[in-house]
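Re: your question about ATP-binding cassette domain-containing protein

S., sorry for the slow reply, the queue was backed up all week. Below is exactly what I fed in.
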Amino acid sequence: MSLIRVENLTKVFERPIRSDGIKGAIKDMFHRRYERKVAVDGLSFNIDQGEMVGYLGPNGAGKSTSIKMLVGILVPTSGSVLVNEIVPHKHRLDNAKHIGVVFGQKSQLWWDIPVSETLNMMRYMYRIPNDIYKRNMEMFADILGINEFMHVAVRQLSLGQRMRADLCASLLHNPAIVYLDEPTIGLDVVVKKKIREFLLEVNRTLKTTVLITTHDMSDVEKLCSRVIIVNHGKKVYDGDLVQLRNEYGTGEVLSITFEDNNPQVGFNVPGIERIEWQSDQQVTIFYDKGVINSANLLSHYMSRAKIIDFEVRPSEIEDVIQEIYGKQLGKIV
Ligand SMILES: Nc1ncnc2c1ncn2[C@@H]1O[C@H](COP(=O)(O)OP(=O)(O)OP(=O)(O)O)[C@@H](O)[C@H]1O
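Result:
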């Protein structure tokens, strides 16, 4: 039986339409008009215990809205959500006992008190037994390295320290599931690495299920065996990263350095999907190798301009995903 079951989940927001000027504002007071925004549109998926799933999509795709429904903060417009056999918005407290939540942009810690006090409060709020509290604190403090700022008030912590403390607080009560919304946003590579090690260890030893939204593809590559991609509120991909690469990774990337600045070489070539200029001389060309191969593409440019360097590589997972966002994927799964 899956731990998270989402069936045909839909959330429609109604936003008031505001008219311009004072006249408009007065008119709006008597005549409210609304526009409908379908943020989540018929989403279905199951997640089993112990899975680490990347929940991806471009800005505004509906990721946070669906997580808020999984957490129970938002009530679905239609469809159903079951988390650990609980309907989250109907039983928010029961649901809260089994989940941990970290929103990268917002902290759940108390600003004015030291980290140690917040963690202590968590212990009483969740009635965490002594042995579990002790074991988790030892393990978490060790991997996350939080002892060095344990007695500092939260408002004085750096972003990376605050995020590590937030992660510790959200997992102390041994939740079955943790939802992470952009947990590594704005962090340096050292802290990102610590956080990823921590999540892998927690998942390995405690079998915690992790659902993570991120725009950082290295988070996904390091942590997730499965990804769910949403766009315009709909699921457009659900599967493992290897399959994603095989199915959609028909892309290749050719980087060229020209001798002259701004060469007029033409990029309107069948197969080219996107180009990015790094400087007046350097361009990166993303193309579908099923339509044109690197040798033909290169000879196209060599016959038009002098090339002093080039490199061909397969698309990064980031490029593959960006292509999926861009193409909108004709098929919805
Ligand atoms: N409370 C709200 N009222 C009206 N519209 C909303 C509300 N919350 C979200 N939306 C709209 O729903 C859509 C989905 O938003 P959501 O925050 O779920 O996207 P997201 O995938 O999390 O984006 P991001 O990656 O930028 O965080 C957006 O168009 C957003 O403007």
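The first helix runs from residue 21 to 30. The mean pLDDT is 88.

Happy to talk it through on Thursday.
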